[in-house]
Design brief:
mainly alpha; 5 helices; about 65% helix
Length: about 80
């Protein structure tokens, strides 16, 4: 596994159990299919606070960053 994927896997470990569950599924089903560019974008997304990220993944709020919307949708579908 590439160093970039390892960084993403490490950053997807969250303090909020619900997010942890989503990201565990996402990592198992989607991570290997992402390009390096998508992985870099995901790393940017993962800088977001857990509560805000949970609101986006849980569908309570729309993600305001256009380049993150596809990843948020993919995480939600996992």
């Amino acid at each position: 596994m590439s160093a970039l994927k390892e960084r993403v896997k490490w950053r997807t470990r969250r303090g909020l159990l619900e997010l942890d569950i989503y990201f565990t599924r996402f990592n198992q089903t989607q991570l290997d299919g992402l390009s390096d560019s998508e992985l870099e974008t995901l790393l940017d997304l993962l800088e977001t606070d857990d509560i805000e990220l949970w609101n986006w993944v849980g569908g309570r709020e729309e993600c305001p960053v256009e380049e993150w919307k596809g990843l948020v949708a993919a995480i939600r579908r996992s």
